Amino acid sequence: MTRKLERLITGIEGLDAILEGGLTRNRSTLVAGTSGSAKTVLAVQFLAEGIKQFGEPGIFVTLEESPDDLRKNMLGFGWDIEKWEREKKWAFVDASPRGREQPVIAGEFDFGALIARVKNAAASVNARRASIDTLAAIFLQFKDLDIVRRELLLLAESLKELQITSLITVERLQEYGDISRFGVEEFVTDNVIVLRNPLEHERRRRTIEVLKLRGANHNKGEFPFCVSSGRGIAAIPLSAIELKQHSSDLRVTSGNDALDKMCNGGVFRDSVILVSGATGTGKTLLSTQFLSGGAKRKERCLLFAFEESREQLFRNSSGWGIDFEELEKSGLLKVLCMYPEVRGLEDHLLAMRVAIEDFKPNRIAVDSLSALERAGHPRGFRELIIGLTSYIKTKEITGLFTATTSTLVGGTSITESHISTITDTIILLRYIEFFSEIKRGITVLKMRGSKHEKEIRELLIDQHGMQIKAPFKRLVGVLSGNPQVLTEALDGD
Amino acid sequence: MKFKLFICGDNASSNLAVLNARRLMNGLSGNHHELEIIDVLESPERADEARILATPTLIKEEPAPLRMLVGDLSDLQRVRAVLQLPSAKRLAENDGGLND
């Protein structure tokens, strides 16, 4: 029988999902990273989130920067350490060597003073969390690796006895290779987290990896994270995200009355709609109507356009009787055009999340996902969709994504097969050859949690936008790409 | 001269450091010397003030410059070199040395 280890929710966005439920309680975790990898930010944020979200006081053992520098530097993240110190929620143990020479070692020693100070500080605020930043300073001052290691083990043991969960930062000299600079630090703690900041394709890409979580499960591999002012570190757990968001029964308009009818009264508010079709079948029009339909009802709408320029989009929309320019002026619409290739998929996801956070939309459209798919490998793409989908669902945003099929008639898009299980509603737009004439068809293939019409209806595009007409009768094989008209039945009519 | 010696309770290295520090004091010429012994287990806030981590730590506060020695002070040569005290030979004549 194994007993499950109790966890401590860090409160750092995304990290708890990667840890599958937080750090193991009362244990020490080593945070290894090169210089500039945001170790100190993580160490401070660990205490800050504990105080803000859980009322768990903390102590910060600083071995490098002075408390004053930390107080000042962390204000930009919105963390008012001084206030927390006054409220007895935060205590420093200041062991920064500023302004003095290194001590000379003359005989046997221990870290009795450090441990006594940690215990004293912990008692003064009733600490549940501790951060120690950074061990590199200790190793540089006290060069005897064996003694330092022995004493750090004692320190970790003391923290455990005090029932404190801790982060201890160490420096790495390179992004890959030895975990820590002095080669012994990782043996001091139960858990190891690695922060990386490598240069890839001329771009810095921050990642966080849980290397070891003794006695507990965690997600493996590197996950991207970003550091932003006012918020600190936010990791993107991508594949670690569980799709467990509640969904509402509230329906909103798709932007087209006839399509709303096909969907039994509109689409669900926090659902994601995938629109799949070949080029020219009306995907961009559908997303344009989706946005203007929302804006008409005073919803805030955000468009991520990866295929067309602003000029093209605005011209198209005015051709369908929708004035994007006016909508943008009213503040209800924001159009963001991005080139898929200019950055990696994680950065796209980050940029989209930041834009969503800034604009706080009620609905967003992505036109098209297929263009974005070209900017990375399939796994990363799937992760981006999961990340984006779960993110907008937690924010109760209605999402519409378009995907381009590679063949003109019938067929499915690669995008679609990758993500169809993630989306709630799938709408197909198809070219249909009908008595030597090409027509467009629309059908609702799937709608999670709702009845919907099963017929394929004819779709017309004119200066008023999209007109959905009567269902095609006696037509089979549209989805497979080989539509056939049942002439016998027609004859008998 | 003015010294502070931080120790951690009743452990071997702390005891040895007290012994060595006292002998060192005895070996100094003149009588305006001060040695304060601080137990960090009893007064952790004194360790906070001095920002120290390790015990035993001997701090020479006066005359300036401030000097810090970490350890049980059994490394005699280093202790004297850091504190800029008279050579080992002269001390040995006076006292029989810091180390038995």
What does this structure look like?
The complex is a heterodimer of chains A (493) and B (100). Chain A has 16 helices and 27 strands. Chain A has 493 residues and is α/β, with parallel strands linked by helices. In chain A, the strands form 6 sheets. Chain A has a 9-stranded mixed β-sheet, sandwiched between helices. Chain A has a 9-stranded mixed β-sheet with strand order 19-18-20-21-17-22-23-24-25, sandwiched between helices. In chain A, a hairpin with a 7-residue loop joins β26 and β27. The radius of gyration of chain A is 28 Å and the shape is elongated. Chain B has 100 residues and is of the alpha+beta class. A 4-stranded mixed β-sheet of chain B has the order 2-1-3-4, with helices on both faces. In chain B, α1 links the parallel β1 and β2. Chain B starts with a strand and ends in a 5-residue tail after the last helix. The chains are: A alpha/beta (493), B alpha+beta (100). β6 (104-105) of chain A pairs parallel with β4 of chain B.
Which characteristics define this entry?
heterodimer; A: 493 residues; alpha/beta; Rossmann fold; 2 domains; 9-stranded mixed β-sheet; 16 helices; 32% helix; elongated; B: 100 residues; alpha+beta; 4 helices; disordered C terminus
